[in-house]
Amino acid sequence: MATVGMYVDMPLEDLRREVRAHFFPPVTEHRSWLARRKRATVCRMVTRPARFGSTAWVLGIKGIDNVIDTPAETVFGKLTREEYLQHTTRVMAAFVGRDDPSRIEAVATDLPMILAVREGWRLGRDVAPMLYDLWMSVLPDARRQLRGEVFPNECVQAGANHTNHLYGVGWVHLLGVPLDEATRAMRHLTLDAFEVDNLEDLLTDLRDSCAHYTIEQLQAAGIDPDVLAKARTWEEVFAVPNMAAWFHERAAVQVGKWSGSSRKELVQLFGLAGYSYKVGAWLLTREALRLARKMQLLSARWLQAEATHSQ
Asked: Are residues 162 and 291 in the same domain?
């Protein structure tokens, strides 16, 4: 039986090879040039020695995303999804000395997180405590998805906002930005970034029973959450009364922020870690603005068609 402890003690190069074998097998089917480039970039990040603590943090986040997105039966066979989440909690606890890694059977989705922690140790940056906090913050939302609860209430959403905050603060701090400055600035910047993600991913999230807008938000806008939860296409989403106008308004707010205040603040924040990071932040804000405009245009077309039809 391969244990988590075995991978913790394994030579790093062998561990990278294991990660590559499980998550980046040779691809034979046709893919677009952009898809191949994106895959190659992530593959290099995972299978080459990390140069910065921030890279180790990104590896850990990828590992957590793999756990959330991977059906339990594909890695454990007979275990339930809840048991799968409990397993990952044990793995995370082992990283911070709260469980014995030699007594935990390892599965494929553990490997990126193990690699992230080991790369952090090699670089003198212990990302394990932050990853543990992040996982414990993610866990309630993962269980909400397990129960099929499409929309959280405000209390659950507060926990999700905390999770998003941890994502951003950990990354920016490991770039070299002082923790207090990262914590202050990322409190609202992460909310803006994840709002763009939530808009773009709404349709996928509805299908996966994990949309991140709250029941209270939707009801305040005159949107019936039960009707929206049944939508499986963008046409069905925008056909829900009041949904298109509400969606368009939220997208417009993000277009304004990522072309103005949020862009300026993120670039300045990353600039504290060096000029190259400042350039990277500008590219990130440009992508956020592109996605926000895309969602704004998507809903605007529906509103225009609706207005034309009503005339």
From this structure: yes
Domain co-membership, 127 together with 185: no
Whether the pTM exceeds 0.90: the reply is no
Instruction: From 120, 147, 174, give the residue that closes a domain.
Output: 147
Can you spell out the DSSP letters for 61-107? HHHHHHHHHS-THHHHSS--HHHHHHHHHHHHHHHTTSS-GGGSB--
Q: Are 82 and 146 in contact (CB under 8 A)?
A: yes
For the chain, the domain total comes to 2
Could you tell me the mean pLDDT of each successive run of 10 residues in the chain, 311 residues long? Answer: 92 88 58 55 60 74 77 62 90 94 90 90 88 89 83 80 78 78 83 91 88 92 96 95 96 96 90 81 90 94 82 62
CA dihedral 53, 57, 62, 63 (to 10 degrees): 100
Q: How far is CA 43 from the centre of its chain?
A: 18
If you compute the radius of gyration of the chain from its CA atoms, what whole number of angstroms results?
Answer: 21
Residue 232 phi/psi, 5-degree rounding, is -125, 0
296 and 221 inside one domain? yes
pLDDT 10s digits, 184-206? 888 788 889 889 999 999 998 89
| DSSP code at position 10 | S
* DSSP line for 113-169: HHHHHHHHHHTT---HHHHHHHHHHHHHHHHHHHTT--S--HHHHHHHHHHHHHHHH
Beta bridge partners of 22: none
Sequence-ordered list of residues with C-beta below 8 angstroms from that of 123, at least 6 positions apart, any chain: 50, 51, 52, 53, 56
